[in-house]
Design a protein that fits this description.
Helix content: 55-70%
Strand content: under 5%
Structural class: mainly alpha
CATH superfamily: Globins
Number of strands: 0
Number of helices: 7
Shape: globular
Number of domains: 1
Order of helices and strands: HHHHHHH
CATH architecture: Orthogonal Bundle
Bound molecules: protoporphyrin IX containing FE
Amino acid sequence: MNPSLSIYENLGGAGALRKLVEAFYPKVQKDPLLGPLFPEDITPVMEKQYMFLTQFFGGPSLYSDAYGHPMMRARHLPFPVTPERAEAWLACMREALEEIGISEPLRGIVLQRLSGPAFHFVNTP
Ligand code: HEM
């Protein structure tokens, strides 16, 4: 891992972000707490997440260019995000990072960066 580069670049750029969301969403869909919140056709969600995580980790601003200000907490308000669901989301992300071969310390850094937003999106106990 090169600390002078972005997380996006450390992960491996566009190809790695694609692999990450492709590893992540099947786990989300299988998770008993998360699966029921998502539509059967997960492809549009995967594409948006690819665009969002790309910019979140310091790559090109794909999400904002297409959809404007992310307002991610607001976009999650229609869904009951509990602390348990935030934990489950992060656990799926940890498994996905492992699956695509992202090792420590980068894996821990990525998860730490995502845990802030995940718990910030909690909108119901
Ligand atoms: C805390 C637990 C979380 C839950 C339960 C959750 C759940 C959801 C759900 C149900 C959707 C909508 C799917 C649809 O379009 O029908 C969604 C969309 C999305 N989520 Fe999450 N999410 C969580 C955390 C996060 C985190 C931590 C991030 C990124 C930092 C994130 C990024 C996104 C993005 C980019 C979208 C697409 C937004 C759009 O429609 O433009 N989510 N999420």
